[in-house]
Amino acid sequence: MQETKYLLVLEVLIKECQDGGYRILEKSDLLSLLSNKCKMSENELDKIVSSLEKDELISLKYEDEKVYCVCVLPKGTKLLEEQKNKEKPVKAFPRISYFAIFLLSFIASFIACLLTKLIVF
Questions:
Q1: Beta strands in the chain (DSSP E)
Q2: What is the mean pLDDT of residues 54-60?
Q3: Full-model pTM
Q4: What domains can you pick out in the chain, each with its CATH number?
């Protein structure tokens, strides 16, 4: 559960800091954006933001009681993209049994021989 909150906070920060520079974000705004997906307290948000900074996924210029001045680093964007790619299922080709392949080949060759016989004679 903690990892999902970690990734949700990172996702919201990426959406809010799309220009690549530092952005001043109020804690209450972040909590309201996160409330749609999960419930989080301000203390949890502080811990997650500090752990994101320790993992070098974001750069925190300063932190106040009510605001963050934050910039998402390329490592953070890359991590979120990798997590989203892991969640997407890989589409595989449907498996056809050897018997089905044999049967289709046999029918196709039989029809080809029949058509050849009708054309030649």
A1: 23-26, 58-63, 67-72
A2: 89
A3: 0.66
A4: 2-87 (1.10.10.10)
